[in-house]
């Protein structure tokens, strides 16, 4: 206030608070579902959202196995090299995907990381067609991940969940069977978010 030289919270603070509240709501709704998925698979489960054109880890349930993914709540990663990131990209217009890749870059995390936009697009198309994404040692060597989208009441993808498995344990699983469990879990969370697609 120019007359009193005092400050007060304005509409922008409400916007920021509303976004934070919606993210906490997703986390609260998803928690029991990701715990169940963790028990069913015995592997590490993540809940993520997009924030500032990056993947942001909102929640995690660790595998009980001694060898597991090294990640933490609050961690940020590039979108192009993670299963959850590819899910979030796959449901965007191509122009938006290109903008994100141009602004953030597509650095290599491993020799298997997709680092060219024209090679990422077919992967995103396949992700959307089948309803799940695979990170095949693209973010971390020796680790595979299967991810699926979470929708809100307006049928918009607002988050993603994933199961991350060390390669030596992944070989004993059928990808399609694991993908079904991850998709079903994501659908249950979406339903609680008000999605009735």
Describe the overall structure.
The structure is a single chain. The chain is built from six helices and six strands, in the order H-E-E-E-H-H-H-E-E-E-H-H. The protein has helices spanning 11-41, 83-90, 94-104, 117-130, 167-170, 175-192; strands spanning 44-51, 54-61, 76-77, 133-136, 143-151, 157-166. Strand 4 (133-136) and strand 5 form a beta hairpin. It starts with 10 loop residues before the first helix and ends in a 5-residue tail after the last helix.
* Largest beta sheet: strand ordering: 3-2-1-6-5-4
The coarse overall form would be globular
Low-confidence stretches: 13-22
How would you classify the helix and strand content by structural class?
Answer: alpha+beta
What's the N-to-C terminus distance? Answer: 47 Å
Cα-atom radius of gyration: 18 Å
Largest sheet: 6 strands, antiparallel
Summarize the structure.
The protein is of the alpha+beta class. The chain is about 45% helix and about 20% strand. It starts with 10 loop residues before the first helix and ends in a 5-residue tail after the last helix.
SSE blueprint:
Blueprint: H1 11-41, E1 44-51, E2 54-61, E3 76-77, H2 83-90, H3 94-104, H4 117-130, E4 133-136, E5 143-151, E6 157-166, H5 167-170, H6 175-192
Antiparallel strand pairs: 1-2, 1-6, 2-3, 4-5, 5-6
Provide tags for this entry:
single chain; 197 residues; alpha+beta; 6 helices; 6 strands; globular
């Amino acid at each position: 206030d120019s007359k009193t030289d005092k400050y007060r919270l304005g509409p922008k603070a409400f916007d920021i608070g509303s976004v934070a509240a919606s993210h906490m709501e997703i986390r609260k709704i998803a928690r029991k579902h990701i715990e169940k998925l963790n028990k069913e698979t015995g592997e590490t489960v993540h809940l993520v959202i997009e924030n500032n054109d990056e993947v942001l880890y909102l929640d995690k349930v660790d595998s009980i196995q001694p060898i597991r993914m090294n990640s933490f709540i609050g961690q940020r990663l590039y979108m192009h090299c993670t299963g959850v990131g590819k899910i979030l990209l796959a449901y965007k217009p191509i122009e938006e995907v290109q903008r994100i890749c141009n602004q953030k870059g597509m650095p290599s995390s491993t020799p298997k990381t997709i680092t060219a936009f024209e090679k990422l697009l077919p992967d995103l198309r396949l992700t959307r067609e089948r309803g799940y994404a695979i990170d095949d040692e693209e973010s971390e060597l020796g680790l595979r991940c299967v991810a699926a989208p979470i929708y809100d009441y307006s049928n918009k993808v607002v988050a993603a969940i994933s199961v991350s498995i060390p390669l030596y344990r992944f070989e004993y699983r059928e990808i399609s069977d694991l993908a079904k469990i991850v998709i079903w879990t994501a659908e249950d969370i979406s339903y609680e978010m008000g999605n009735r697609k």
